[in-house]
Design brief:
The chain is α/β, with parallel strands linked by helices. The chain has two domains: 65 residues, no CATH class; 124 residues, Aldolase class I (TIM Barrel). Helix content is 40%, strand content 15%. It contains eleven helices and eight strands. α1 packs parallel to α2, α1 packs across α11 and α7 crosses α9. The termini are close together. The mean pLDDT is 96. It binds 1,3-dihydroxyacetonephosphate.
Length: 250
């Protein structure tokens, strides 16, 4: 790990009603009231964002959106403005998650516009990249993730890029229980880090079937600064265990 502190990010995807989200926060804060050894952020669905923001106010737990619009207001039916994220206390956003790319047609160009907008408004983007099983098997991982990464950060200064986070999430590892091996993920992440000026200073997270049992082996790698976690971030106890085990590798 290069960063001062690991980052554990919980992407709840389309899970949790408002009461479940606020219960999670209460439970987690009871387990880890002043946990300073890692940075931790949760990404609830939009409907639970405001209530989750109220529940975690004043704590070290961060809040983010799972996506956002690249425009700040106007005729964009169904979209969520970055100003609305800030209004709920969310200062983070996941951009370019593979599920958004696959099911909502998000393009590299749209993701790039969103990164520019997020930075302009002081929201930290976690830019997600990752190759399919087919690209992985064909040896195209490097070309694919470097193309996604350079496209996402096009037109930004190295200083702006350094304010972002990247998540390397091989699609074949998401929700399958088949995590990448920590050394293999580290090699890809080293290539991502070398692909755009500014990324040498950013945190790069691994994502894809991260659990409390394997997070320590990932953050022990030199280019892995934390994890973007789906399934194992849904229970407060499991999220707390992820935080503890990420810290143990310092
Ligand atoms: P899982 O941790 O459930 O594999 O999901 C990873 C992910 O997509 C996080 O954004």
């Amino acid at each position: 790990m290069l960063a001062e502190r690991p980052l554990v990010a919980g992407n709840w995807k389309m899970n949790k009603l408002i009461a479940e989200a606020t219960d999670f926060v209460r439970e987690l804060l009871a387990l880890a009231p002043d946990f300073e050894a890692v940075d931790a952020v949760v990404f609830p669905p939009f409907t639970a964002l405001a209530a989750t923001g109220e529940a975690l106010a004043g704590s070290r737990l961060g809040l983010g959106g799972q996506t956002m619009c690249d425009n700040v207001s106007g005729a964009f039916t169904g979209e969520i403005s970055p100003l609305m994220l800030l209004d709920c206390g969310a200062h983070w956003v996941i951009l370019g998650h593979s599920e958004r790319r696959a099911y909502n047609g998000e393009t590299d160009a749209a993701i790039n516009r969103k990164v520019h907008t997020a930075l302009r408004l002081g929201i930290t983007p976690i830019v997600a990249v990752g190759e399919s099983a087919e690209d992985h098997a064909a040896g195209r991982t490097h070309d694919h993730v470097v193309r996604q990464t350079t496209a996402a950060f096009e037109g930004l200064t190295a200083d702006d890029v350094a304010r972002c986070v990247v998540a390397y999430e091989p699609i074949w590892a998401i929700g399958t229980g088949l995590s990448d091996s920590p050394p293999a993920a580290n090699r890809v992440m080293e290539q991502i880090r070398a692909s755009v000026a500014g990324l040498e200073q950013t945190r790069i997270l691994y994502g894809g079937s991260v659990k409390p049992e394997n997070i320590g082996a990932f953050v022990a790698q030199p280019h892995i600064d934390g994890a973007l976690v789906g399934g194992a971030s849904l229970s407060a106890q499991s999220f707390y265990d992820l935080m503890v085990n990420a810290r143990a590798q310092e």
